[in-house]
Automatic annotation (TrEMBL), chain A:
Origin organism lineage: Eukaryota, Amoebozoa, Evosea, Eumycetozoa, Dictyostelia
Pathway: Protein modification; protein ubiquitination
Span list, region Disordered: 731-773
GO cellular component terms given for this protein: anaphase-promoting complex
SMART domains reported in the protein's UniProt record: APC2, CULLIN
PROSITE patterns associated with the record: CULLIN_2
Family: Belongs to the cullin family.
Protein name: Anaphase-promoting complex subunit 2
From TrEMBL, chain B:
Keyword ATP-binding appears in the UniProt entry: yes
Residues that span the membrane, as ranges: none
Organism, scientific name: Polysphondylium violaceum
Entry-linked Pfam families: UQ_con
Protein name: UBC core domain-containing protein
Keywords, ordered alphabetically: ATP-binding, Nucleotide-binding, Transferase, Ubl conjugation pathway
Active-site residue list: 90
Annotated ranges, domain UBC core: 6-151
CDD domains: UBCc_UBE2C
Entry superkingdom: Eukaryota
Length: 841, 154
């Protein structure tokens, strides 16, 4: 035998010893049993033999060979044992599916706990062996107590890491297994999170945030009443926490925690979203953000802490911090997302929703949500507000609430500017906007009126704008305060900034008060003043007493807002009314002195130049009234020479008392209707033609229309084509049977009093429409003038010329001009040849 | 600048007056986008030889209008003792007799009346002045010239 042979024999001998010593039990159970033995920790492999291996290379070979053995065991035995536990359970489950069958999840949970337990034991077993081998190889002086010293050794750590990696790799050989493994982790952690968070949420809210299925399930398990479960819950929680932490500890050892990170993320984000949805949806009257942060702190971070901070490991503490920041951010994100999705409703419910808006404001300042907020709100505003179905008043109310709400969220006004603009633009298009706003100014019950009449809150923009130059008023300290100039910061906006200084002022004004922000819908406050004038005119003309207190108060308030000069016309109008009262008394005295007059006749004398244009409608009064009117005129000219009265005959109203068939009925009608009836009183039967010549009204349709009122009231009847007479008969039988008529309620012959104010359709044509018509008449003249001088012009040329040379009155769009031109073509004033318009020859 | 603005304002209000209360036979409107250049239209007054004839004019306003008169020329060739072949008009109020109280309307009306009542003392078109006394022949020549200039036969 050579020495070489001797060497080989030696090696073979060692090898046999080693393989005998290191033989791995063939089943998982055996290993588990070994580990479970109380003597396991102190057990020593008889591996003195290893000490005989001196060469590093050989040591390496031995270790690799041993890892090979372990890998084989993992792959062939352990993995099978593991997956056998989940056979058939996982196939039907997908994580995306919100609902995992509770039974399945419970099963998986149990199996997973079980499997982790034995995997852990197997792992410990191998770890221990590796530890021993390592000690034999590299720590010759060791004794039993030094075993753990290896844990700080880098080389040893790598070995353990390798052991962990092999384990994970063996368990998830195929991609399906990887998938399944993630599923298991997901279901396990989610279930644990739910059962962990539930009692805490229960304590916080007094209700469960999760579905009740688990409750039921646990009730079945424990067969307990809900109340007693609550009492026991603290012990139960403790127990659960401990076992969970124990399990997590094992997962750490197996290095499964790190790979589960994605899974926590999914679960926690999902839970955050669900909880925020559940807590916040439709609740706007409470501050919730701090509460949510607080309870996530109590639940999520605690849970996460249980998983991650198993010991004072710095690595995990760092990760935990990292996680905490991430989760907090995610809470802000989800929270603001949820709030933004309901922002429109929050605005609708303003001011009840102020707490919710304040919460959103916190988010707004913390994370960048400006863009989302603006675009989402604008989208909803278009969808829900700015459509033809919405009432103008509602839009205005919503606009006011929007201003107030955005003020809370973003004090710089950037958001408001972006969101307010489409609403303003839309409102400016609506014809009745001004009227609605002015009405709300002066409606004593509206909120705006409160603000309107509260002079303290008044700012100076109105005055300033009316002045129409950029004269700086000494009083405007708060606008031009030096400090403010230095404090000015550019708005950090995605929106184009208005470098126009005046615009910026307007921005600030938007914040100042509601009324100015409403006035700012339009470029100039003149429109409002005009509209108010029209309204005032309507109101004053329908006034039956001379009670002007309210109107005077309103005008005074408007003066404060829009400046002294702008209300000049309105003041004159009101003065006209009170002057009329005096003059009436004075003139009546003179007339009554000279003549006995049966009619009570009041005249409103208005100064034409200061009133809005009043529609003309010519007709002649009945001579008996005419006579009186002439007297009045004469007397007026005498007193007020050289002024003269021009009668607006169709204005005003007449109170009539009609005695017919033994009944007396009172009517309040227009002068022309009264005149018609006076003629009937005189002539009994009249034809339309006759009425037309008596009233000096050429258009018989107008007379017919007026007659309809009397026909309907059965004062007059038609006896023949266009022949009418007084209805002397009793009211129609039909009517008397019909109880719905007020007139026929009792037949006792008692005088009935009915006051019917006839509604004149023509009146509905508002003053502003009349003004528009007048404007278009001027435009027509311009068009004719243009075409006279230029022979033929295309539409756009005319549009631009009108915009340029008659900017004050010409406000139409080119489409409106086109339809107006078509109207002129129909009236045969102009004609269209090709693309050019020209005068019709 | 401010003066120009004031002039533009004055012209604007003259335009408004002219449009709202038009005078028969005369009209004018700014040309293009410049309010200082206008196009005018004058129709010959009824029962004169110029009856039924329509003439275009150009009005160019100086920046110191109305203290200086506008430059007015016939754009449609006009056979008239006081109008030369280039359309220049010999009219005292367009020159030394101009006064700020005149405006576009009065100016156009003056030119309209000048058509029927020429000043034959200082003619720019001596041929026209020479045949003015014979109204029938004058009208014949006038219509021929008008037809040559505009292509419109009256």
């Amino acid at each position: 035998m050579t020495s070489d042979d001797q060497y080989i024999n030696n090696i073979i001998g060692w090898w046999n010893d080693i393989t005998a010593q290191f033989s791995i039990p063939s089943t998982t159970q055996e290993i588990v049993a070994l580990v479970d033995q109380s003597s396991f920790q102190s057990q020593q492999l008889k591996i003195d033999i290893l000490k005989r291996i001196g060469c590093d290379q050989d040591k390496q070979i031995i270790l690799e060979w041993y890892f090979e053995l372990i890998t084989c065991f993992y792959k062939n035995t352990l993995a099978n044992d593991f997956w056998n536990l989940f056979k058939g359970v996982l196939d039907s489950i997908t994580i995306d599916n919100e609902k995992v069958n509770k039974k399945q999840s419970k099963l998986i949970n149990q199996q997973f706990t079980l499997s982790i337990n034995f995997i852990y034991k197997v792992f410990i077993y191998f770890e221990n062996n590796i530890n021993l081998i390592y000690n034999q190889f590299y720590n010759n002086n060791n004794n039993d107590n030094d075993n753990n010293d290896n844990s700080n050794n880098v080389e040893y750590k790598q070995l353990i890491k390798k052991l962990q990696d092999i384990l994970l790799a063996s368990l998830t050989l195929s991609s399906k297994q990887t998938n399944d493994f993630n599923k298991i982790l997901y279901i396990f952690f989610e279930r644990d999170f739910i059962s962990f968070s539930k009692p805490i949420y229960f304590k916080l809210f007094g209700e469960s945030l999760e579905d009740d299925e688990i409750d039921q399930e646990e009730n079945e398990d424990n067969d307990e009443q809900v109340d007693s479960r609550l009492d026991d819950s603290i012990n139960e929680i403790k127990y659960k926490e401990n076992s969970f932490m124990d399990l997590c500890q094992k997962l750490h050892t197996l290095n499964f925690i790190i790979i589960s990170e994605d899974i926590f993320t999914q679960i926690l984000f999902k839970k955050i979203y669900q909880h925020i949805e559940k807590i916040c949806r439709d609740i706007f009257d409470k501050r919730l953000l701090a509460f949510i942060l607080d309870c996530q702190d109590q639940v999520m971070f605690k849970w996460l802490g249980m998983i991650l901070c198993h010991d004072d490991n710095e690595f995990y503490a760092n990760i935990f911090q990292h996680w905490k920041t991430r989760l907090e951010f995610s809470i802000y994100e989800h929270f603001s997302e949820q709030r933004i999705s309901q922002l429109f409703d929050m605005i609708v419910q303003y001011p009840d929703s102020i707490p919710a808006l304040e919460d959103l404001s916190v988010c707004y300042n913390k994370i960048s949500i400006q863009k989302t907020l603006i675009s989402s709100l604008i989208k909803v505003v278009y969808q829900r507000l700015l459509h033809p179905g919405a009432n103008t008043n509602d839009i205005i109310t919503q606009y006011i609430s929007t201003i107030a709400s955005m003020k809370i969220i973003d004090s710089t006004g950037v958001v408001l500017e972006a969101v307010g603009r489409p609403i303003r633009t839309y409102l400016a298009q609506r014809e009745d906007t001004i009227r609605c706003i002015v009405t709300s100014f002066t409606d004593e019950e509206s909120e705006i009126y409160q603000e309107f009449s509260n002079i303290d809150s008044l700012d100076i923009i109105g005055k300033q704008e009316i002045k129409d130059d950029h004269f700086i008023d000494d009083n405007n300290d708060d606008f031009f305060d030096e400090k403010q100039i230095y404090l000015w910061k550019p708005s950090q906006s995605i929106i184009e900034n208005n470098n126009n200084n005046e615009k910026n002022n307007n921005n600030n004004n938007l914040f100042k008060d509601t009324i100015s922000s409403l006035v700012n819908i339009y470029d100039s406050p003149e429109l409002f003043v005009n509209e108010y004038r029209n309204m005032l005119s309507d109101r004053l003309l329908s006034l039956r007493d001379y009670n002007l207190d309210k109107e005077i108060k309103n005008v005074e308030l408007l003066k404060l807002r829009f400046g002294e000069n702008s209300m000049h016309n309105c003041e004159v109008m009101i003065k006209d009314i009170s002057d009329s009262k005096r003059l009436n008394t004075q003139i009546k005295k003179t007339i009554n002195d000279t003549q006995e007059n049966p009619i009570s006749f009041e005249t409103l004398i208005i100064s034409r130049l200061f009133w809005p244009s009043i529609k003309e409608e010519e007709f002649e009064y009945h001579p008996s009234i005419r006579e009186y009117m002439e007297q009045f005129s004469k007397e007026y000219s005498r007193i007020k020479a050289p002024r003269e009265l021009i009668w607006k005959k169709h204005m005003g109203f007449v109170d009539l008392e009609i005695e017919l068939n033994g009944k007396t009925i009172e009517y309040s009608v227009s002068p022309i209707q009264a005149s018609i009836l006076l003629y009937f009183q005189q002539l009994v039967t009249i034809s339309i033609d006759r009425l037309s010549s008596l009233l000096k009204v050429g258009n018989k349709d107008i007379i017919r229309k007026k007659l309809v009122f009397w026909l309907n009231n059965q004062v007059i009847k038609e006896i023949d084509q266009d022949q009418y007479t007084i209805n002397n008969q009793e009211f129609d039988q039909v009517d008397e049977d019909d109880d719905n008529s007020d007139n026929s309620e009792d037949d006792s012959g008692q005088d009935e009093k009915v006051t019917i104010m006839e509604e004149e359709e023509d009146q509905q044509e508002s003053a502003s429409a009349r003004e528009k018509e007048e404007q278009m008449r001027v435009i027509e003249k311009f068009i004719i003038g243009m075409l006279t001088n230029f022979k033929a012009l295309p539409l756009d040329r005319m549009h631009s010329m009108l915009s340029m040379f008659n900017a004050e009155q010409y406000t139409s769009t080119s489409a409106e001009l086109k339809s107006f031109l078509s109207k002129l073509i129909n009236e045969e004033k102009i004609e269209l040849s090709g693309l050019n318009y020209q005068i019709k020859k | 600048m401010s003066q120009e603005h004031a002039v533009a304002k004055r012209l604007q209000s003259e335009l408004m007056n002219l449009m709202v209360g038009p005078s028969p036979g005369v009209s004018a409107f700014p040309e293009g986008d410049n309010i200082f250049n206008w196009v005018g239209t004058i129709q010959g007054a009824p029962s004169t030889v110029y009856d039924n004839l329509e003439f275009k004019l150009s009005l160019k306003f100086p920046t110191d209008y109305p203290f200086k008169p506008p430059v007015v020329k016939f754009e449609t060739s006009c056979f008239h003792p006081n109008v030369d072949l280039h359309g220049n008009i010999c009219l005292d109020i367009l020159k030394d007799k101009w006064s700020p109280i005149y405006n576009v309307r009065t100016l156009l009306l003056s030119i309209q009346s000048l058509l029927a009542e020429p000043n034959n003392e200082s003619p720019l078109n001596s041929y026209a002045a020479s045949i003015w006394s014979n109204q029938e022949e004058y009208k014949k020549v006038l219509l021929k010239k008008y037809q040559e200039a505009t292509g419109i036969t009256v």
